[in-house]
Amino acid sequence: METHIFYKYQGAGNDFIIFDNRNELFDRANVDLVRKLCDRRFGIGADGLMLLQDVEGHDFEMIYYNADGHEGSMCGNGGRCIVAFAQDLGITGSQTDFLAADGVHHARIHANNVGWISLQMIDVDAVQQDGEAYILNTGSPHYIKIVQHLDTFAVFEEGRKVRYNDTYRDEGINVNFVQAENGGYYVRTYERGVEDETLACGTGATAVALAMAWRQGEDGEFETPIRVAGGKLTIRFSKAGDHFTNVFLEGPAEFVFKGEISW
Known about the structure:
Blueprint: E1 3-11, E2 14-20, H1 31-38, E3 48-53, E4 60-66, H2 76-89, E5 95-100, E6 103-109, E7 116-120, E8 128-130, E9 133-137, E10 141-146, H3 155-163, E11 174-181, E12 184-191, E13 196-198, H4 202-216, E14 220-228, E15 231-240, E16 243-252, E17 254-262
Parallel strand pairs: 2-3, 4-5, 10-11, 12-14
Antiparallel strand pairs: 1-2, 1-17, 3-4, 5-6, 6-7, 7-16, 8-9, 9-10, 11-12, 12-13, 14-15, 15-16
């Protein structure tokens, strides 16, 4: 067995194990290992796991795994956390460009607001509807439905029904339930790959802000506050019809602890 150093970060309650894999020693194909490390009873415990790797033309590459052990799509809160990690390692300064599953992302760490990071997300060119719900991809696919009494809403049960229905079972989808409040929105999310409710979902919060602007039918510049169980996020973007550009997910990213584990 060998001992490996890991780092734990969290963004609005979404927590991640991160390895500095610039030496490429981590076996990316070992699904069982990733699943065990993310297990909250038999491993370190996390919503996901990330590898920071070297890549030509950018500051670093972000490899993201869901807690089920499989490589996943983009994770917004994870993206902010790995940006903080890269700065802590001395790889980057206050600004960075990195490569993720859905392409290149730019990020900025705010000097006047410690731990607050702006992460540019992909442009979005389409919002679809599934009955009363809205469907769009912000780096990961999302289903968004407005509900009442979200505090007591059965997010796990209702989210699981959608995620495993005939339409979404094979590819999977993240299911977001939304309630308007104080000029913004309260959001709770059932995440595929975790297969449970999480305290936050960055691509989900982004999808909610865009979908609600599309629903209102107004164009322009938007800044939408989102409250999640793990804290607060802000989504900034430009909208012109069905097209969303200059999309930024803003929120906290915090180092939790560093440890060693053997396998």
